[in-house]
Amino acid sequence: MSNTDDIRWVAQVALLGDKTAFDKLTCKYQSSIRRFFLNLTVGDAPLSDDLAQETFIKAYLNISTFKGISGFSTWLYRIAYNVFYDSARAQKHYDDIDEQVIDNQHHTLNEFSAEKMDIYKALKILRKEEQTAVLLFYMEDKTHKEIAKIMNCPLGTAKTYILKGKEKLSVYLTQAGYGNERN
Amino acid sequence: METNETDNMLKGFFGEQKQEIADNGFSKRVMRKLPEQADRSWIVWVFAIIGMLTTLFLGFYTGLFQNAQFVLPRIPVYYILAGVFCFPLVGTIGFYFTQNKHYRLI
What we know:
Structural class of chain A: mainly alpha
Strand content of chain A: under 5%
Helix content of chain A: over 70%
Distance between the termini of chain B: 59 Å
CATH class of the largest domain in chain A: Mainly Alpha
CATH topology of the largest domain in chain A: Rna Polymerase Sigma Factor, Chain: A
Radius of gyration of chain B: 28 Å
Number of domains of chain A: 2
Largest sheet of chain A: none
Largest sheet of chain B: none
Shape of chain B: elongated
Order of helices and strands of chain A: HHHHHHHHHH
Number of strands of chain B: 0
Number of helices of chain A: 10
Low-confidence stretches of chain B: 101-106
Mean pLDDT of chain A: 83
Shape of chain A: elongated
Low-confidence stretches of chain A: 102-115
Largest interface: A-B, 44 and 35 residues
Helix content of chain B: 55-70%
Number of helices of chain B: 5
Mean pLDDT of chain B: 80
Distance between the termini of chain A: 37 Å
Oligomer: heterodimer
């Protein structure tokens, strides 16, 4: 499924209000958007699903504002980014989440908990902006330009977030013996 | 550690953790939550009716319809050819929409 499909589906939704076309967009992007939220919320699956749902509903309601200059995926991540930060600002509890609570969540709510603990611990050492930029760059394969658009910041700032995140993660993972295990 | 090495290490690390999340009804839940929007298909019908009325008016007003048997033979052949070539195009578009149930033609 190419970007041409995206444009066609977006046009059908925007012009005709075609929900079937929007369903196709949702099916195509649900995995990456939910994964993005799952990582940003350090494994809180119910919260990440709620945020993903809100993202898709906002996308549906504002689809006529999509100009097609950037890809639909980039536009969707931009909404997701805003949804996440609005939610974080409203709740203000993400930075204070007790580690034990996270552990419990991983064991009870997330079937991938055992394998995912490493990444959640690693992400927790980063600032939220660095987390977002690093996840978009290394996990979602976005370019620097796309990340700058998603985070609505200058290109240099996006690069700085990635660089700082990379430095911190490099130290963390090396200390944790990750590089050695691979070598 | 060199930048490239770090990049490779992080790409490896995130690549290992990357998972595809199964839909498990998520899309359906989103579709159920979508607000109803006004049906805009009436716009197409309005323009179609305006187009038809305009054609009929001009056809009768200019006498084209009444004198069709005299006028049609005088129409340049390439006009007719252009009209004929439109049929496959319109037919293809019509076929595309009718055969593929996922795309509705209003």
